[in-house]
Amino acid sequence: MSPSSPSFAVRERAALADLMEELGPDAPTCCAGWTTAHLAAHLVVRDNRPDALAGYGLEGAGIGGPFVAWTHRAEDRLRTSTPYSDVVARVRNGPRPWLPMGWPPIAEALNVTEFAIHHEDVRRAQPDWAPRELSRADQDALWSHAGLYARRGAGRRGLVLRRSDAPGVERRIGAAGRVVEGEPMELLLWAAGRRDVARVEVS
After folding, report:
1. Rounded to the nearest 10 degrees, what angle do helices 66-81 and 53-60 cross at?
2. Can you tell me the distance from the alpha carbon of 88 to that of 114, in angstroms, rounded to the nearest whole number?
3. How far apart are alpha carbons 61 and 56 in whole angstroms?
4. Cα–Cα dist 192/189, whole Å
């Protein structure tokens, strides 16, 4: 990829916006109870509402409470008050540059997995989906983030993530336990709880 080429996160954002626009607001996703309209509202609130970020952090840690409820209300208000096409356009355009999520170092650190996972949430909830062929550079970008998600699912038994596309490359979390093998996109989806659609081998 040349220095002027869009990053993986930027390309995933655009591809997800294209897909949501194509499918409309009522298409299913792999996020339980969410349609594409719910997912689009989630992404816009995450991009543009710093007051909602605490809710996302707590929810990701499995903690509820008023901050999480506030975040959900912000998503629901946007989804029910704004035409779906406008919400998807805001997903495509990204956050305002003066917001935290508009700062490139933060955006690149947090958006690689966010948009890769949610793109697949939409893709893999549709009939006849198939895994995409990603470049080695894109798979490497996903691999660099997969360990953070895997720590949440390792538990006391520990976990080994093993790349099927790069012999000898693995990441061990905790004590030796389950071995999960696949391409980085599949490992990331498995670690992020999308186990029904992740193409991995577990031993």
Report:
1. 120
2. 16
3. 9
4. 5
Q: What angle do CA 95, 96, 97 make, to 5 degrees?
A: 110
Rounded to whole angstroms, the Cα distance separating 48 from 182 reads 34
What pTM does this model have?
Answer: 0.92
How many CB atoms neighbour CB 71 within 10 A?
A: 23
Cα–Cα nearest to 112, from 139, 80, 74, 151: 139
Alpha helices in the chain (DSSP H): 8-23, 36-48, 53-60, 66-81, 84-93, 104-123, 136-154, 184-191
Q: 133, 131, 126, 138: which is closest to 19 by C-alpha? A: 126
Q: How far apart are CA 32 and CA 179, in angstroms?
A: 26
Domains and CATH numbers, the chain: 8-123 (no CATH), 136-202 (3.30.1050)
Element (H, E) at 163: strand 159-163
**pLDDT, tens digit (0-9, with 9 covering 90-100), for 75-112:** 999 999 999 999 999 999 999 999 989 998 888 888 99
Percent of the chain at pLDDT exceeding 70: 92
Local structure of residue 6 (DSSP, 8 states): P
Residue 108 burial (C-beta neighbours within 10 Å; 0-12, 13-18, 19+) = middle
C-alpha separations of 178 from 28, 75, 147, 182 in Å: 31, 37, 14, 13
